[in-house]
């Protein structure tokens, strides 16, 4: 039994070395990924920091002016929106009124034509009866 132990040791050592080699490769890959992640994170933090500094450099008066301009523009937009709504309502009412007037004029024209035809027929009857 002691004779098989040295053979078994060699196998165990080679197997352990192979497994250790595989884990080392994975470990190196993970270390490289982690290093890349950390560098990108550092770059992102630097960018965010520089943007914060840039926005911090804007004076509060400039911000107040911008807010005032925005409020003025918003008020103008609301006024325009209200005017457009009123104009749309007015156009709809005028369109309906126009249709009613058109119908009335068509009825009047039809009635005139009917009266004219009736007068012509009456005249023809009078001429025929004389």
Automatic annotation (TrEMBL):
Residue ranges that the Swiss-Prot or TrEMBL entry lists as coiled coil: 77-124
InterPro entries linked: Snapin/Pallidin/Snn1
A GO cellular-component term linked to this record: BLOC-1 complex
Superkingdom per UniProt: Eukaryota
Signal peptide (from-to): none
Name of protein: Biogenesis of lysosome-related organelles complex 1 subunit 6
One Pfam short name: Snapin_Pallidin
Key words, A-Z: Coiled coil
Protein source organism: Homalodisca liturata
